[in-house]
Amino acid sequence: MSAAHTPRHPHVFAEPFGSAELSRFTDTGPEASLRRLEQIAHLMDTAFVLPGINRRVGLDAVMGLVPVIGDIAGVAIASYIVYEAKRLGAPRWLIARMAANVAFDGLVGAVPVAGDLFDAAFKANRRNVQLLRRHLEKKGNLRPSEIEGTATRLD
Fold it and tell me: Which listed residue, of 31, 121, 146, 149, carries a Cα 20 to 30 Å from 23's Cα?
């Protein structure tokens, strides 16, 4: 091949088209998994802002408006987060605490009207992902999301 026909950026052709997007969904490492779980928790608990009251709610609160089916769907998605925590090696006590959050959210959320308001406030998915994040950071499987200490401005 002549110099005119060699690609300038050979790394561009290193992966088949679309494989970067696919690996984003198939990567089972702790950081990639937690990133996906955080996206699910955001969608379920804080994706939308209610105009007028400036309060964030997610699909969990919206689905809860549909009797029975919406509550079951919300619990199923929240249970997936607990399943992923188990797959990532969370201890039994943490799995139990996360499952209790899901059960509490599901039971109280099943109560008409008051349960829907509770769903908008409790945010079990965000709580569970935060519990998992703290555990993985302490265990050393995950880089800290926050840096401990104080900052000093250097001017």
Answer: 146
Structure tokens at 93: 């006590």
CB proximity list for 120: less than 8 A, separation 6 or greater: 55, 57, 61
Count of domains in the chain?
1
Kindly list the distances between the CA atom of residue 55 and the CA atoms of 52, 66, 70, 117, 146, in Å, as whole numbers in the listed order. Answer: 8, 21, 21, 11, 25
Give Dmax over CA atoms of the chain in angstroms: 73
Tokens in use for 62?
A: 């919206």
In a domain, residue 100? The reply is: yes
C-alpha span between 109 and 27 (Å, rounded): 33
Domain that holds residue 115: 28-139
Per the CB < 8 A criterion, the answer to whether 124 and 80 are in contact is: no
Q: Give the three-state DSSP class for 85.
A: helix
Q: What is the pLDDT of residues 19-57, one digit of tens each?
A: 555 555 567 788 999 999 999 999 999 999 989 988 999
pTM score above 0.90: no
